[in-house]
Amino acid sequence: MNIKEHNLIMINDENGEDVVGDFLNHLYQKSKESDEAKLHLMFLNSAFNLLSVQPLDTLIKRRTEITITFNGEQRTRRYHLVKPLRVIPIYELRYAMSGNEHLRFLFFPFEYKDQSNYVFVKCFIKTLDPNIDETDRMRDLTYQMYERVKENPELYLEGIEE
């Protein structure tokens, strides 16, 4: 069976900010002192790894089980890792930081020079209490970036390690 690998790429958003990269770097810095941040980073790393090798359809249709070993103890989470966001081709990679905080990474698939890429543009935290949900706004901003990448892919995707 031929496993197709997808490149995961973080690009600057409409404000020229690497929102996803900055968030992950911040979490990485926090993980050096915080076990909680380290746990989140390990789960996210596994989620990103799965996304790079699993077919998108599989991740959307089935619950994904992620197991990590943290401080010698196995931890498992099982949930829908990827969800389409009603505007083609925008998706979210989902991760619950707590019962109240739900982290979302917005991306779109993009073929370029025979390479399959998942291009990440936005990330944000959705909360239940208070009810803060920027999904639609972030989805629309991600779609605008998709349109920009489609018009001028070399501007966003050139210089990427192949």
Automatic annotation (TrEMBL):
<protein>
    <submittedName>
        <fullName>Uncharacterized protein</fullName>
    </submittedName>
</protein>
